[in-house]
Amino acid sequence: MSTGRAVADDGGSGLAGFRRNVWWGLAGTVACVLGFAVGDWVLDPDVPAGLRALTGLSTAATIVACGVLLGRRMRDRAPSAGWLVTAGCAAVVAGAVPLAVGNFGIWSIAPAATIAVLVMFLPARRAWQVLGAALVVLPAIGLVVALATGEPNVAHAVWMPALMVVAFGPAMLGMLRGWQVAARLDDARRLAGELAVADERLRFAADLHDIQGHHLQVIALKSELAARLAEADPARAAAQMREVQQLAGDALRETRALVQGYRRTTLDAEIANASKVLAAAGVEVRADVDAGLAAALPDAPRSLLGLVVREATTNVLRHSRATRAAIVLVPDDAGARLVIDNDGARPARSTNGDTNGAADASGAAGAAGAADVNRAAGAADATGTAGAAGPVGAAGDGTGLASLAERLDAVGGRLSWVSDEDRFVVTATVAG
């Protein structure tokens, strides 16, 4: 019946106070019932002093031992053998003395309370089985003693022990169950917080990839071009390096904004930037965007579409030799559909993450020459695979579009692709 948690470490969760209240409720029930029921008999001057003293001491020991055992149970600790023996022996004495002198009203209280405490350390089914056995054994003891001593009120000797078992057992197990439910709910709350933190870390990693992957790829391409042009055309090389400087500054600013939690992707800005960057790489770009539709989209889907544009553009620059590309945003039955199409797809030559197997940029650049290095580093749309149509993320390492596919799915959208000879089309749909 353990809750499976270290309850002793719950001080910061607000659960420690509730645990103390449950303990006081359980221990207080045992102490009050035993104290009031046995106290009158212990103070009765007609009862021999020795029997009163023995009953009083054993009852007090029962109360203390039950309190200690309840404390260990509330902290999910194993019962101490010493306290188990103390509670059992004290309960036997506290019940045997009144029973021996014919007090059939109070003798079963200490044994019933102790049994109810001890079964709390057992699994639920076993606990109820033990209580059921006690419901038979204690009344049977009362019946046998009553018949042996000639007690006229035999019924009282039978139903009183049964009443004590029924009164203590379910009540104490019910209070324990309430505590366990509260502890598990607190565990669930804590786990939900940890999952939220993990999800935010994944979101942050995806955004950081979107920012740095795009800018760093363009910087690498322009730096390579500048290095090739340094001797042949210093002026053009210097222009390329100024653009590199600007791109580095943009990446730094966006990274800082992301860290501070202020960054938001703008679909219009991403489409405009993609058109500019692809044109600089020698790709003829056609952008057909419904501005009203873009403005009407909710923030989350619009931001994700902007990230799709950025990721697709980055992979165009990295992994193909596209000469033409199109970026189209049109209404869709569900809301809006973004289509990014290029003619740079080629047969796969590797299984690298967000590529369709294009040759690497540096090798292509060498073959094409310094003047054409931008185009040589061009793009096959970011797909994570080569071949037939399917959902993005079905192959590859999933660090780019695969991650965006999951995020679009979370807001009711979808990301897919299709490859047809030299054409590659990435399609994203979102709800309006």
TrEMBL record:
Transmembrane intervals: 21-43, 49-70, 82-100, 106-123, 130-150, 156-176
The Signal transduction histidine kinase subgroup 3 dimerisation and phosphoacceptor domain, residue ranges: 200-266
InterPro entries: HATPase_C_sf, Sensor_HK_TwoCompSys, Sig_transdc_His_kin_sub3_dim/P
Disordered, as annotated region: 343-363
Comp. bias regions, Low complexity: 353-363
Keyword terms: Kinase, Membrane, Transferase, Transmembrane, Transmembrane helix, Two-component regulatory system
PROSITE patterns named among the record's database cross-references: PROKAR_LIPOPROTEIN
Coiled-coil regions, chain positions: none
GO cellular component, one term: membrane
GO molecular function: phosphorelay sensor kinase activity; protein dimerization activity
Gene3D superfamilies in the cross-refs: 1.20.5.1930, Histidine kinase-like ATPase, C-terminal domain (3.30.565.10)
EC annotation from Swiss-Prot or TrEMBL: 2.7.13.3
Name the UniProt record assigns to this protein: Two-component system sensor histidine kinase DesK
